[in-house]
UniProtKB/TrEMBL annotation:
Any single Pfam family the record assigns to this protein: AIM24
Protein name: AIM24 family protein
Signal peptide (from-to): none
UniProt-listed InterPro entries: AIM24, AIM24_sf, Trp_RNA-bd_attenuator-like_dom
Listed SUPFAM superfamilies: TRAP-like
Length: 233
């Protein structure tokens, strides 16, 4: 067990300016945002700040009626917080590991639970997985991000990226799926027999299938927000 004097502890753990720009990983699980204007973060992600920063919950009509309607359907999982001003903002999400992505005109889908922060230059939209809405409690939604700018995503433990090719589709557990490239085709498949191996109750096993050319990011952990209705009691 590590033991420190007070001075040693401060020296070992103190914040350091790394000169990495807007998004800077202070630790693998704590993101520093060097704010000069505006940023969108997951609501409730702020853990500390210094400077002149104002926080606002996403306005009801901030992004138009279409997104408001979809947000209502998906619940609070997509709630965003807008931080404006100048200063240093520190955000985190339940100790999950943070990865910073630079979008250069590409598009990426991120599970709504795994989106931590993104620049206002990024275009975004909520995408509902309609086909399984009636099969699952809480539903499943993702956020499509595209354009130019930085995006911070989170994962439980280290993420693993699987490459998808036309002759080799990838199947994932929706609960363990973090993100995927925007050009992939996605569908849900069920396997009634698969449940007998994992002991998940009486429901069918729902898997995501990714086809085309691209990548899928998974985590070695299953989020609990996605449950089958017929296995709850």
């Amino acid at each position: 067990m590590e033991r420190y004097s007070i001075q040693e502890f401060v020296t070992e753990t103190k914040q350091q300016d790394k000169g990495e720009g807007l998004f800077e990983l202070e630790t693998q699980r704590l993101l520093e945002i060097n704010l000069t204007d505006k940023i969108w973060t997951k609501a409730g992600a702020m853990v500390s700040y210094r400077g002149n920063i104002k926080f606002e919950r996403e306005g009801v009509f901030e992004h138009g009626l279409g997104k408001m309607f979809k947000k209502t359907l998906t619940g609070e999982g997509t709630s965003l917080m807008k931080a404006t001003g100048t200063g240093k903002l520190y955000v985190a999400d339940q100790g999950k590991k943070i990865s910073i992505l630079q979008l250069n005109g590409e598009s990426i889908f991120v599970n709504g639970n795994d989106l931590l922060a993104f620049e206002p230059t990024i275009d975004w939209d909520i995408k509902l997985m309609k086909k399984i809405a009636g099969m699952l409690s809480g539903g499943l939604f993702n956020v499509k991000l595209e354009g130019e700018g930085l995006v911070a995503i989170t994962s439980h433990y280290e993420p693993l990226t699987l490459l998808v090719t036309p002759d080799n589709p990838v199947f994932t557990d929706p609960n363990a799926t973090v993100a995927w490239s925007g050009n992939l085709q996605t569908e849900f498949v069920t396997d009634i027999s698969f449940k007998t191996f994992i002991g998940r109750g009486s429901g069918e096993s729902i898997q995501m299938k990714f086809s085309g050319n691209g990548f899928v990011v998974i985590q070695p952990f299953e989020e609990v927000y996605l449950k089958q209705t017929n296995s709850m009691g």
